[in-house]
Amino acid sequence: MTRIDRYILRQLVGGLLAVTIGLAALVWLTQSLRFIELVLDRGLSLGVFIQLTGLMLPGFFAVILPITTFVVVLFVYVRMNSDRELVVMRAAGLSQLRLARPGILLALMAVAAGYVLNLWLVPLSHTAFRIWQFEIRNQMAAILVQEGVFSSVGGDLTVYARLRDRDGTLRGILVHDARERGAPVTILAEQGRITTGPNGPRVTLQNGVRQQMERVPNPAPGAQPMRLSVLSFNENSIDLARATRQEEARFRDSRERSIPELLHPDPAEGLRPREIARFVGEAHQRMSAPLTALSFALVGLSVALTGQFRRHGGGLRLATGIGIVVGLLAVGLTIGNLATRDNSFVWLIWLHATVPGLVALWWMLGAPGLPRPRSLPMPPPLPAGGP
Fold this sequence. Notes:
Blueprint: H1 3-40, H2 46-54, H3 57-82, H4 85-91, H5 96-139, E1 151-152, E2 157-164, E3 170-177, E4 185-197, E5 200-215, E6 226-239, H6 241-244, H7 259-263, H8 273-288, H9 291-305, H10 314-341, H11 346-364
Antiparallel strand pairs: 1-2, 2-3, 3-4, 4-5, 5-6
């Protein structure tokens, strides 16, 4: 690697790290806001919050790395062209491919990082994230009950608390329990407290009324088949874990599975054909996504290195490159949705990941094989002394 290569590559690597980390931090900040309330009002520890939100970072990096690679390559080369650095390098005899070598090397490093993320870190981190969510939903139901809100602690149990004291005591409680089919229960209590036991969270209610609709055995002709049963109590407890732990075996979604598991799912799971098609599409998207970093970088290089030099032409080059990549991203989303519904279109995923880069490389090398208009011959000079 020559000194010029190191000079360009140093700018590219520094810019890529700064832009990628900054954009990932911004995305992390916006996504983690929905977990802030669990820390401020619901007693979730700061360590659990950092671990839970930190597990989202590999997924963010995998998504934004191709985009940030393109942005850095395009901006660095356009700036060097505006500062006439590329003009001097061309005058020294460097070809287009020689100038593009640091950008291609950066894109190859981004491709390698993308494969590490997509094939290893993202499934690992997403699995840990889903396990945390599962435990919070099933073992930490106390933090899900919000003051003045009808909170669904599962699909068939709703809890409302008018006030929540600093020590965790709930006041003005309403519980609607529909876990027993055909016999819903409504409980009103003055106060209560949610505790975590060996079998999961429980809510202990004090000074309340329990109302339940019961089916009347052998009702008389014309009588109502249901009756309301009312019971006053000093203390009563309800198991919340049974409301939320509907299945001990948590279903693993596509982002938690490895490539072999996506391409060849276990028949014992009984997946529907639509889910199998979605898994296959996810596998091909995960394997082809890192290649888009190289394709997008080649698009940026072809835009920045081709065309005539203009002192104030940087804005047009930037707009052209950004417009092309935005269009490619939109096409990629459309192809991804189409391929996950119908696997016969999976080949379009690989076409989208590779063809733009090949076309950009061909254009950057001068579009060999493209017919060019012939220049008209110059007229012969007039003889001396002519009219």
